[in-house]
Amino acid sequence: MLVAGRTPPDVVSLIRSIRAFRPELSPREGEVVAYIAAGFTHDQTATRIGLSPHTVDTYLRRVRAKLNAGTTAELIRLSLTGAATRRPG
């Protein structure tokens, strides 16, 4: 959930991009990906949005599955570009 004054502007911008390119992601999944894409660690992301690090990891695993992404870098690229997911290989 976006909190005015608490969410860094670069993260807000990333969240908006993710929502535009990836409507299949839940708002919370998009928020978690945005924090990771902005360079926050799992622990920092968890603290910022009021989750446990384990829950952050769970959200990222769900997003990887939805986008068929094998790595964090690929997950971020697919989330922010709207590129087609890779085909099983």
Automatic annotation (TrEMBL):
UniProt domain HTH luxR-type: residue ranges: 18-83
Entry-linked InterPro entries: Sig_transdc_resp-reg_C-effctor, Tscrpt_reg_LuxR_C, WH-like_DNA-bd_sf
Protein's UniProt name: HTH luxR-type domain-containing protein
Gene3D superfamilies in UniProt: Winged helix-like DNA-binding domain superfamily/Winged helix DNA-binding domain
Protein keywords: DNA-binding, Transcription, Transcription regulation
